[in-house]
Amino acid sequence: MRIAIVRLSALGDIINSALILQFIKQKYPDAQIEWICEEAFAPIISKHPLLYAVHTVAIKRAKKTKSLSLLLQTISKLRSLGKFDKIIDLQGLLKSALVARFIGKNIYGFDKDSIREAIACNFYKFYAHIPYEENSIWRTLVLTSTALEMQITKKMVEKKEPSLSYKKEDDITQHLLSSTQKSIAFVIGASWLSKTYPKEHFVELASKLDANIILIWGSEKEKEDALYIQNNTKNTHLSPKLNLVQLTALINSVDLIIGNDTGPTHIAWAMNKPSITLFGPTPASKMMWQSKINLAIESDSKVNPLKLNRSDMSIKEISPETVYEKAKGLL
């Protein structure tokens, strides 16, 4: 059976969705699973041993550069992939539904009452119902189990294997680890300013922790914040610029990850590593799968999962002391 998984973006969603691969292979060991995603996010799953192939699209780049030719090239590439037995659109947007339709007709997606862009349903042949405000990982599992006529239980998720992979040569940050202290990674950036824990709070948190702390950054702004934290603490160290696979290797090497609701903290969950994720304008109940070792700390903000407020800066109300107490328990 040839299966196409359509999950174009974003980084955290692709990381969380990778969980389904191990369950599909348990049920259908001979299945040929192929993933379609935006080119920027392909590295996080391109080396996954359970994937036959990863196909990229350049929709974001075509939109940014206003390049019709690039968009047409992407469409042509999709149409040349050949026949799939089943296509599963995990994203549920118009653009992902169109991508799915370009590669075939046997498409499974969320029904009109379970989706953010109901127009996408016009391109599906089969549907699954689960409210949009439900946990995003569980939504992915429900749709996958419906499409492939298989059962995935919450107990199976609790016993999951790490759902991302890397090679030995990707593990380039061993020199940052300590042989005498626990090593903690701080994830200081996020896609929205309102999802970002204040750098001053990270400084205070670092001063409370008797640990070797590695500061993960992606953009130049995040690097500036990381340098601020490093310059105002004695136990923090700047990570080098890492690609997504190298980042996975680093996160798999540390004892604890603390950070914002963003890709790297989702990697911790995917790799079965202890983590604390800080939430302000986004709902933990929807965005992450909490466990004994993967904890969420939320602000007191009343978040509506159907209408997020990007101006909600309540994450700064989470005290470093609260984070410290949770970290002590996990360490």
Q: How do the strands and helices of this protein lay out in sequence?
A:
Layout: E1 2-6, H1 11-17, H2 20-27, E2 32-38, E3 53-57, H3 59-65, H4 68-79, E4 86-89, H5 94-103, E5 107-110, E6 126-128, H6 136-148, H7 154-158, E7 183-187, H8 199-208, E8 212-216, H9 220-231, E9 236-238, H10 244-253, E10 256-260, H11 263-270, E11 275-279, H12 284-287, E12 294-298, H13 320-330
Parallel strand pairs: 1-2, 1-4, 2-3, 4-5, 5-6, 7-8, 7-10, 8-9, 10-11, 11-12
Helix pairs in contact: 1-11, 3-4, 8-9, 8-13
Short description:
The chain is of the alpha/beta class. It has helices at about 10-15, 20-25, 60-65, 70-80, 95-105, 135-150, 155-160, 200-210, 220-230, 245-255, 265-270, 285, 320-330; strands at about 1-5, 30-40, 55, 85-90, 105-110, 125-130, 185, 210-215, 235-240, 255-260, 275-280, 295-300.
